[in-house]
User: Fold these one by one.
Assistant:
Number 1:
Amino acid sequence: MHVLTLTTNADAPFMTQQLAALEERGVSFTTVPVAGEVDADTDRSPTDYVRTVPRVVREAGNGYDLIHAHYGLTAPMALAQLRQPVVLSLWGSDVHGPIAPVSKLSAPFCDEVVVMSEEMRETLGRDCTVIPDGVDLEKFRPEPQDKAKTRVGWDDEDAYEVLFPYSPARGVKNYPRAERVVSVVDNLLKRPVRLRTVHGVDHDAVSDYMNAADALLLTSDSEGSPNSVKEALACNLPVVAVDVGDVRERLAGVDPSHVAASDEDLISGLIDVLERGERSNGREAAREVSIDRTADQMLQVYERVAGTVIETEAGSETRRVEGAAGRLE
């Protein structure tokens, strides 16, 4: 199976991990990113999206089984070609944020829509397939905390280390709330409490920070299925988080960890986690969203939409049938 991938961020770790896992299952990809440069201070312009459309239409004629559009703003360009079925994956901010109307208008015209949580499906208001982004359990695994602290350069042995794994500039992550919570906890506990922001580091190094920290603090205004929570679970790092996206589902049965509805809940939950000083049992919960499991689920979507069953190791015959949208392959 050959898939054309459209994305606003070709380097997104959760997407590249999914592509790699699907390649192991017999899928090949060609990726077309949206034109233009983007960074922390610069967004793409509408012109960048418009000038990407002709390239997508031309590329779509090269014999792909389907088009996989990642993020709501790529859906219109995927739908501009009329030959191949379209899978749309929504990431969270494209359902909750200002571009949500684009996602909602495009979704009915796609052959299948994939969202990260039940909450996203309810917000979108239509039938979807729920597949959270998977976590690599080989890359994210428990390691001794003292060794991890040495690797990341945290040398204050007396301090509690609270991890905020995003750039403070990302407004939706609500860094000021995390600062308020940690400031209060720091004043209430005898040991100092440090809020550590981690962003812009190589994704392979993130597990070191997870293992070095005493807790992960999530204060986002909205989320789909936050990868930082799943990565923390895989490392047995306790999580204190607001009730967004699929956080409550992911933390069900995980101890110590807390889902909070207010600043007071965040403060009391963080104090409990830090004073207990224990790692969580999160790794067992993380197995539900391992990259292997979620890649298998996405492969089923591909097969259903394209009408293609990929040949297995057991040698089952590859077959083509009528696709989901009635296209004969």
Note: The mean pLDDT is 91.
Number 2:
Amino acid sequence: MKNRVAMVFGATGLIGSEVVRLLLASEAYDEVHAVVRRDPEIEDDKLRLHLTDFSDLASFQLPMNVTDVFCCLGTTLKTAGSKEAFYAIDFQLAYDLTRLAREAGAEQFLMVSSIGAAAGSSNSYLKVKGELEEAVRTLAFPSTKVFRPSLLLGERQEQRFAEGIAASVLPRLSFLFKGPLRKYRPIEGSAVARALVAAALEGGNGFSILQGDEIADRAG
């Protein structure tokens, strides 16, 4: 496999920051581009930062040599402040950046979604995630891989009270998540990042969805 060039959206979040670290450590990648609102204060010869407030994507130019795109963007309704603001980030911004990457010639797209994502869901969060999955599918990357983890564990820069409570309780009940329920088992954000990078290096064709248990298996 030729050496690759990665682009990471959401590079300062729980999963995205670990994806960047893994890509920088991988000999398979010559360059790692990170699209960010603020400087992540990482120094590496392979890292290329693209600082933007995302207010004017019409003038935003992506490099033409990117092979693999990792979309780790995401917020919550509470953080966004409204359903409209949440949609603007989790759907519109993610889709617009992905479309630009496809137009720039990227070959492979890997996206973090959520367990239960479905465009027809009555849950606003899952509905938006499902709509994004369907939208990026129409962009027809040679390879698209959607990751649907369950509850994410790990230290976030923003504290999420409900998730914090769940994260302290559910891991103790992991013995319940067996068989068909295994895909609902909580998973470390770092494990999702490992699975993303491993799947990118495997390559492949077409559109595929990986549930929580499959993500854990890929993470090793």
Note: Residues 83-103 form the longest helix (21 residues).
Number 3:
Amino acid sequence: MKKKGTRKWKVIGFSILGIFVLGMAAFGYEYYQLQPKNHFSSVPVVGAKGSSNSTSADEKVEVKTPVFNVLLIGSDQRKGDKLGHTDSMVLVHVDLNNHKYQAVSIPRDTRVHLDGYGYTKLTSVQYIKQATDGSKKGIEAAVTAISEFMGVPINYYVETDYWGLQAMVDSLGGIKMDVPFDVKLTHPWYAENKNKLISKGTYSFDGKMVTEVVHERYSLKNGEYGRQQLQEEALKGIAKKALSPSNITKLPALVKTIPDFVVATNMSTSDMLSLGLSAKNFDPKTQLVYQQIRGEGKKLYDDILKANNYQIVINQEQVKDIAVNF
């Protein structure tokens, strides 16, 4: 009996050991697959250089190194609405080999040509395509328009709205954000913040206040360009908090909450995990180069609205100088 009992426990012991080994092997394989050089060996192309139509979201291209472009979009779509404008756009060139990031903000009022419609603002492309062809075609049309404007392919896009941004920041427990100049909230989302003044400085903000600050542009000396600076600071704060050593182990759980604050994306959960793990200990001072595209504001005819409105005309040579790094 004693020998049989010993054999029984040996069998159980070997079974547990086998399960442990298999588990470690699976974990090792998953970790291997999440390494950028393995995971990002092929990437999708939503907007392709020189193309007039959006590339299929299912189409992928092989890449030798984990280098690609990500478009971050902020929509002004409100809760319950089916349509929204592309309100903010930041294109990021991600180089995971060297842990370097080039980012450029694109003005929402940039004058562009939309096939079949004529000249309009970049912010209107998504709205009009959503109205005629649905949400997915709307976001892909916006991505393609930005790709053609910048003259570079776009591989991934992530779209959120102000409510999503608020949820994102709150899921991190708030962020530290540098406010580079005084901000008066003239058009807040929340009535109690009307005309609130936030002086230049560094703050610990919750999602609600981050949302309020990055929405403001009317009271700023540089208008839209000032708002882009505020959005840059918010993105830095989010990245630093999410990718800090204390939070990197929580990244898988955080990624699972992404549907709570992302309106649309072509990035998978594993895409986001791989990107996040490779960007741990993100330091914007040494790893990020940020630029703005300046233009001349004019009253011009909008072929969609059938009326004159404010548009920004961009010098394409300036765009080419920036795009050479993307």
Note: The CA atoms of residues 239 and 282 lie 7 Å apart.
